[in-house]
């Protein structure tokens, strides 16, 4: 393996910190409802921050698989949006410093990148790393959003109730980082917000609010969520309005609610419920609602 230190460049001197939290918010894998992106933007737009280190994207990104955007105007190319993977020093609403890792998930050199991040974690004295994620689930938007928590040590997430037992999933850089940190003696945990899968392709600020509230609760950081809450209310009102105008869509949401409520009552081991008349599957419900909401967007 090449020297991990060669993957990043520090902006000046590393700050002297007293056991900061590091929030990892890489995008590019599963970001249902753009919850990771919304969380990152909310923190950087509403809190004081500065870049501590940047990573060499030429070594980490497959540009052909994720082509950065360029702007063409009339007869010339005007701009190019450089992909940036950076570690920020951020101060919460009370002035407490924490670290925020943002940018696209690397396509290449995962193990080397993890070594580089671990090196920075050790140099900065990070006490715990927290990953943000958002996954599409067969849940209705009319019920409280759920959260899956995971950690290198169960004590880090307390009595959080698990939604899953054992399942094989595609690896992501963020989840692998958590695994590697745990095996090297560092505390790490993560949260995955549950996003209604018929809203997974649109902005869902309620999920971002849920993620940041979870981070605040476990770390004590004072993170801003007011604007996310306001946006979530507007999104909820718009979705409710669209569904209320279509009887079939309303029936589908009602079916999802029945499945969800049955799951919470412990009458099933999945988000499905037995009945005399078979209910449509979660995939069928999601596909139908996605179609309906897409049509409403086009009409607008």
UniProtKB/TrEMBL annotation:
Residues of the signal peptide: none
InterPro entries hit by this protein: Proteasome_assmbl_chaperone_2, PSMG2_sf, Rv2714-like
Name this protein carries in UniProt: ATP-grasp superfamily ATP-dependent carboligase
One Pfam family of this chain: PAC2
């Amino acid at each position: 393996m090449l020297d991990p230190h060669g993957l990043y460049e520090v902006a000046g001197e590393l700050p002297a910190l007293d056991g900061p939290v590091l929030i990892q918010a890489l995008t590019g894998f599963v970001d249902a409802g753009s919850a990771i992106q919304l969380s990152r933007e909310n923190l950087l737009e509403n809190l004081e921050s500065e870049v501590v280190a940047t990573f060499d994207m030429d070594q980490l990104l497959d540009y052909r698989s994720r082509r950065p955007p360029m702007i063409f105007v009339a007869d010339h190319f005007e701009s190019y949006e450089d992909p940036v993977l950076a570690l920020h020093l951020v101060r919460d609403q009370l002035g407490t410093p924490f670290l925020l890792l943002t940018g696209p998930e690397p396509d290449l050199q995962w193990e080397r990148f993890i070594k580089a991040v671990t090196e920075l974690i050790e140099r900065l004295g990070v006490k715990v790393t927290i990953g943000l994620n958002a996954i599409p689930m067969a849940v209705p938007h009319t019920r409280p959003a759920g959260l899956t928590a995971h950690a290198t040590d169960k004590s880090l997430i307390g009595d959080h109730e698990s939604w899953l037992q054992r399942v094989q999933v595609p690896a992501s850089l963020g989840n692998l980082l958590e695994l590697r940190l745990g095996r090297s003696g560092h505390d790490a945990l993560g949260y995955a917000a549950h996003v209604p899968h018929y809203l997974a392709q649109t902005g869902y600020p309620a999920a971002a609010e849920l993620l940041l509230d979870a981070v605040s609760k476990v770390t004590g950081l004072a993170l801003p969520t007011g604007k996310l809450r306001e946006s979530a209310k507007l999104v909820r009102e718009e979705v409710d309005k669209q569904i209320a105008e279509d009887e079939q869509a309303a029936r589908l949401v009602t079916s999802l609610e029945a499945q969800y409520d049955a799951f919470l009552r412990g009458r099933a081991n999945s988000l499905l419920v037995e009945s005399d008349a078979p209910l449509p599957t979660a995939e069928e419900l999601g596909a139908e609602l996605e179609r309906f909401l897409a049509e409403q967007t086009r009409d607008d």
